[in-house]
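Lecture notes, part 5. Sequence design as translation. It can be helpful to think of inverse folding as translation between two languages: the language of shapes and the language of residues. The source text, in structure tokens, appears below.
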């Protein structure tokens, strides 16, 4: 039985910026395609492609964030694969709707006989609590396996094997705990990511989703620092990472 104690986040897709020949910007400094795209959109609003202030992309986007003109950030979309989070955590994540798209593993179709589980951060490090928790999730998984077997036998008269397996798994999944690990593909524009990260990296966020959000933040900061550099990660009083942001509700 695999147990996750931390999430795993992988960048799947980033923007591709194709600058039109007839309307070019006088760029300054290095930048990623997503950062260039956001700057291009902002400059189009005022037809300032000649870059009168001679700003680098990082400087331009810093001013955008400072002024709160977040709409230009919506053009830059990043897609992440998030693994090692619980179904409880994913249910919290998908509450963020505007600017996001989600595709999550289906328990109706995927056999969870060898599912992984996510240990709550509050339990990690306490040997007694960890052992008791592992016994509980192992028992739940064993109950799932028995339920699938029994349901397959009960509905043996259904000729369509795919439909029969789906019926068995969709009923048997009811015994699996919220700690069952899920994999989810999340697409979001930079503005939506910033909103989610501001809420979920804060000290008031639930510990697991906070850890997930911090992992997402680190990936996005490496990919597009000018869009996410105003988030500062620190260790909170509860000894878990949290983050604060300079520009709120961009």
């Amino acid at each position: 039985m695999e147990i996750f104690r931390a999430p795993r986040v992988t960048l799947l897709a980033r923007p591709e910026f194709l600058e039109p020949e007839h309307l070019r910007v006088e760029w300054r400094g290095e930048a990623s395609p997503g950062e260039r795209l956001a700057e291009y959109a902002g400059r189009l609003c005022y037809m300032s492609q000649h870059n009168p202030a001679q700003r680098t992309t990082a400087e331009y986007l810093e001013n955008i964030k400072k002024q709160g003109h977040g709409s230009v950030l919506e053009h830059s979309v990043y897609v992440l694969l998030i693994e090692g989070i619980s179904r409880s955590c994913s249910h919290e994540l998908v509450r963020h709707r505007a600017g996001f798209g989600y595709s999550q593993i289906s328990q109706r179709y995927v056999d969870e006989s060898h599912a992984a589980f996510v240990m709550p951060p509050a339990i990690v490090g306490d040997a007694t609590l960890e052992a008791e928790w592992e016994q509980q999730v192992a028992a739940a998984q064993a109950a799932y396996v028995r339920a699938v077997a029994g349901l397959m036998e009960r509905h043996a008269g259904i000729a369509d094997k795919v439909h029969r397996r789906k019926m068995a798994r969709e009923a048997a999944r009811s015994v699996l705990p919220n700690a069952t690990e899920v994999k989810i593909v999340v697409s979001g524009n930079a503005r939506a990511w910033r909103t989610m990260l501001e809420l979920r990296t804060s000290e008031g966020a639930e510990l697991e989703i906070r850890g997930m959000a911090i992992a997402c933040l680190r990936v996005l900061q490496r990919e597009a620092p000018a869009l996410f550099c105003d988030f500062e990660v620190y260790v909170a009083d509860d000894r878990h990472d949290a983050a604060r942001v300079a520009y709120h509700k961009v």
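The translated text above is only one of many valid answers, since several sequences can fold into similar shapes. The two ends are 42 Å apart (CA to CA).
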